C-alpha cells in the first residue's frame, strides 16, 4: 500500500487543529515541515507545535527538519512526540552520528535529499535509516511544480533498495498531485507527501481518498 502523508505547511494555522482533525481518518501520517530560515529561506514552526498537536491524534508524525543544525533540536522534537525525524544529508557532515542520535531517542530516523543531491549521498546510512525522503522540489515552499528529473532518482533508489533487500520507506515530497501521483508511485515511492493538493483543495478528504484510489488500484 502506498501511504499518503498530508504536509502541514499551506494550512490555516488559526484553524490547524480542525484542519488536521478533518483529514485524520484518511491520513496515514502527517508530515510537519520544520523550516529555520537558514537551510531554507522561510521560518515555519518548532517543536511546540508538534507537542501541542500530539495529544489530538494517533496518526504518526513524520517531522521533516529543514534546518541548518538538526543535531541541536533532535531531543526536543523527539520528546514533542515525533514518530519519524528526518534530517537533510546536505547539512550533516557527520550523518552517521546524527542518524544514531535520532535512533537513540527511540524515534525512527530518516534522511532527505534535495533534488540536486545524488542518491549516493545516502549510501553511508542506507542500512540504518527507516526512511529516505526525496524532494521533488527545492525545499522551502508549497505549491511548486514537481521536478520531473526526480522521477528517475525514485526509480534508481527503488532499484537499489530492492537489490540490497532493504525495507525502509521511500518517501517523495513536493509537487505531488492527482495528475502525477501514479507515475511517482509506480517509480517506487512507498509514501507520498502532499501539501497544496490536499489542504488547498476544496475537499481535502476527497482529495486524499481519490489519490489513495489511484495509487493503490
Ligand atoms: C517543501 C516541503 C513540502 C511541501 C509540499 O519544502 O518540504 O512538504 O509542503 O507541498 P506541495 O505538495 O504543495 O508541494
Q: What topology does this entry show?
A:
Layout: E1 3-8, H1 16-23, E2 30-35, H2 47-53, E3 61-66, H3 74-80, E4 84-88, H4 95-104, E5 108-113, E6 131-135, H5 150-163, E7 169-173, H6 181-187, E8 191-194, H7 196-199, H8 204-215
Parallel strand pairs: 1-2, 1-8, 2-3, 3-4, 4-5, 5-6, 6-7, 7-8
The chain binds D-xylitol-5-phosphate.
Please describe the structure with a list of short key phrases separated by commas or semicolons.
8 helices, binds D-xylitol-5-phosphate, 8 strands, 8-stranded parallel beta barrel, 217 residues, alpha/beta
Widest sheet: strand ordering: 1-2-3-4-5-6-7-8
Strand content: 15-25%
Helix content percent band: 25-40%
Using only CA atoms, what is the Rg? Answer: 16 Å
Structure classification: alpha/beta
Bound molecules: D-xylitol-5-phosphate
Report the uncertain regions. none
The coarse silhouette is: globular
Largest sheet: 8 strands, parallel, barrel
Number of helices: 8
Separation of the first and last Cα atoms: 9 Å
- Tell me the total number of β-strands: 8
Could you report the average pLDDT, rounded to the nearest whole number?
A: 98
Helix/strand order, N-terminal first: EHEHEHEHEEHEHEHH
Walkthrough of the structure:
The chain is built from eight helices and eight strands. The protein has about 220 residues and is of the alpha/beta class. It has an eight-stranded parallel beta barrel with strand order 1-2-3-4-5-6-7-8, surrounded by five helices. It is globular and about 40 Å long. The termini are close together. It binds D-xylitol-5-phosphate. D-xylitol-5-phosphate binds near residues 10, 142, 143 and 173.
Amino acid at each position: 500500500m502506498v501511504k499518503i502523508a498530508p504536509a502541514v505547511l499551506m494550512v490555516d494555522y488559526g484553524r490547524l487543529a480542525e484542519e488536521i482533525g478533518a483529514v485524520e481518518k484518511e491520513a496515514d501520517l502527517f508530515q510537519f515541515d520544520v523550516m529555520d530560515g537558514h537551510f531554507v529561506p522561510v521560518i515555519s514552526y518548532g517543536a511546540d507545535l508538534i507537542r501541542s498537536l500530539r495529544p489530538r491524534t494517533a496518526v504518526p508524525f513524520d517531522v521533516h527538519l529543514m534546518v541548518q543544525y538538526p543535531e541541536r533540536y533532535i531531543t526536543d522534537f523527539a520528546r514533542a512526540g515525533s514518530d519519524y525525524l528526518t534530517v537533510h544529508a546536505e547539512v550533516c557532515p557527520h550523518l552517521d552520528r546524527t542518524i544514531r542520535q535520532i535512533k537513540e531517542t527511540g524515534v525512527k530516523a530518516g534522511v532527505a535529499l534535495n533534488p540536486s543531491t545524488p542518491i549516493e549521498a545516502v549510501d553511508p546510512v542506507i542500512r540504518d535509516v527507516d526512511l529516505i525522503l526525496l524532494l521533488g522540489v527545492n525545499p522551502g515552499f508549497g505549491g511548486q511544480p514537481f521536478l520531473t528529473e526526480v522521477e528517475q532518482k525514485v526509480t534508481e533508489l527503488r532499484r537499489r533498495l530492492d537489490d540490497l533487500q532493504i525495507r525502509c520507506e521511500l518517501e517523495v515530497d513536493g509537487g505531488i498531485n492527482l495528475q502525477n501521483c501514479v507515475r511517482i508511485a509506480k517509480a517506487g515511492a512507498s509514501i507520498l507527501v502532499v501539501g497544496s493538493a490536499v489542504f488547498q483543495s476544496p475537499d481535502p478528504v476527497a482529495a486524499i481518498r481519490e489519490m489513495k484510489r489511484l495509487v493503490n488500484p
